[in-house]
């Protein structure tokens, strides 16, 4: 049997996109050309691969079963055929997309950009907002690096712990809790809170820690970012519990007060994540090193 490696790339795109049009756009070919490739794949495998269900295409059981294997095979082939070249940073022209937690962008983004511009002036960085739902951009190659508190569970996504941050409580100037010598867990639980969650969750690990003490708190709202949550504390008695290192400067700018969190809670981790396809990509490895250094300053501050 004569095998065409282009069909492997077409099959991978079809399985990832779930449509002929999407796969064609991904590989920068015309839809008719991708449709012909699908026909050849069907003849080769003896399977339909994608079948129409109303207005969408649905993968067959065989397609679902081989999806990961196809993706890994393509990755291996690309690793074999891609030439290994020395990285010339002075001549490197590339745009990297980074999806980082907004507070990490504010704290570490400027240092990372300065380091990149100093070594590779032709490289550009695109910081994009986190989504409120799990999205596959890392796997699809649309995002190069993620940085947040979530360790990915997918086996093809690599993650590295680059730092830790501890939580503090932020309140307005003159808040009743600022007059107490030490904030107790009971006082913390008795207050009203605004949670920070891009998914809109009204509970988190803080509530679990309170529950272990037989306490509960009232969360009256959630905000998608720490910067937004801090605004709620400016003219109210609401409590905001956020990472210290990423919000101390913003809290000071807003005239807010930072208090210790009266709960035994482990420090929140910071993970840097990327797809395994970039493990041997010299430019990506260079960027990972710079990002690791910039984010480590977060945990050390």
From TrEMBL:
Alphabetized InterPro entries for the sequence: LysR-type_TF, LysR_HTH_N, LysR_subst-bd, WH-like_DNA-bd_sf, WH_DNA-bd_sf
SUPFAM superfamilies tied to this protein: Periplasmic binding protein-like II (SSF53850), Winged helix' DNA-binding domain (SSF46785)
PROSITE patterns according to UniProt: HTH_LYSR (PS50931)
Domain HTH lysR-type residue range list: 3-60
Superkingdom field: Bacteria
Pfam families tied to this protein: HTH_1, LysR_substrate
Keyword set, alphabetical order: DNA-binding, Transcription, Transcription regulation
Classification via PANTHER family: HTH-TYPE TRANSCRIPTIONAL REGULATOR LEUO-RELATED, TRANSCRIPTIONAL REGULATORY PROTEIN
Family assignment from sequence similarity: Belongs to the LysR transcriptional regulatory family.
Stated name of the protein: LysR family transcriptional regulator
Organism this protein belongs to: Myceligenerans indicum
Lineage per the UniProt record: Bacteria, Bacillati, Actinomycetota, Actinomycetes, Micrococcales
């Amino acid at each position: 049997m004569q095998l065409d490696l282009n069909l492997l790339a077409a099959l991978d795109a079809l399985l990832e996109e779930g449509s002929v049009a999407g796969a064609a756009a991904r590989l920068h070919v015309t839809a008719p050309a991708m449709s012909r490739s699908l026909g050849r794949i069907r003849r080769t495998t003896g399977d339909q691969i994608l079948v129409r269900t109303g207005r969408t295409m649905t993968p067959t059981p065989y397609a679902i079963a081989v999806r990961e294997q196809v993706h890994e095979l393509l990755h291996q082939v690309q690793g074999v055929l891609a030439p290994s070249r020395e990285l010339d940073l002075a001549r490197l022209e590339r745009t990297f997309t980074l999806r980082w937690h907004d507070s990490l962008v504010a704290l570490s983004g400027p240092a990372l950009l300065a380091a990149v511009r100093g070594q590779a002036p032709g490289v550009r960085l695109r910081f994009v907002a986190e989504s409120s739902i799990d999205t596959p951009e890392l796997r699809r190659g649309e995002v190069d690096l993620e940085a947040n508190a979530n360790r990915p569970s997918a086996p093809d996504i690599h993650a590295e712990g680059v730092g830790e941050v501890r939580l503090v409580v932020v309140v307005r100037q003159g808040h009743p809790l600022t007059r107490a010598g030490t904030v107790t867990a009971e006082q913390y639980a008795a207050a009203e809170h605004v949670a920070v969650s891009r998914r809109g969750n009204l509970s988190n690990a803080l509530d679990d820690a309170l529950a272990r003490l037989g306490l509960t708190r009232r969360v009256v709202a959630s905000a998608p970012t720490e910067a937004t949550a801090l605004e709620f504390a400016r003219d109210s008695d609401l409590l905001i519990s956020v990472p210290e290192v990423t919000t101390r400067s913003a809290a000071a700018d807003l005239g807010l007060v930072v208090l210790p969190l009266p709960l035994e809670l482990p420090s929140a981790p910071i993970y840097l994540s990327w797809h395994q396809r970039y493990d041997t990509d010299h430019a990506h490895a260079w960027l990972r090193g710079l990002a690791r250094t910039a984010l480590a300053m977060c945990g050390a501050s």
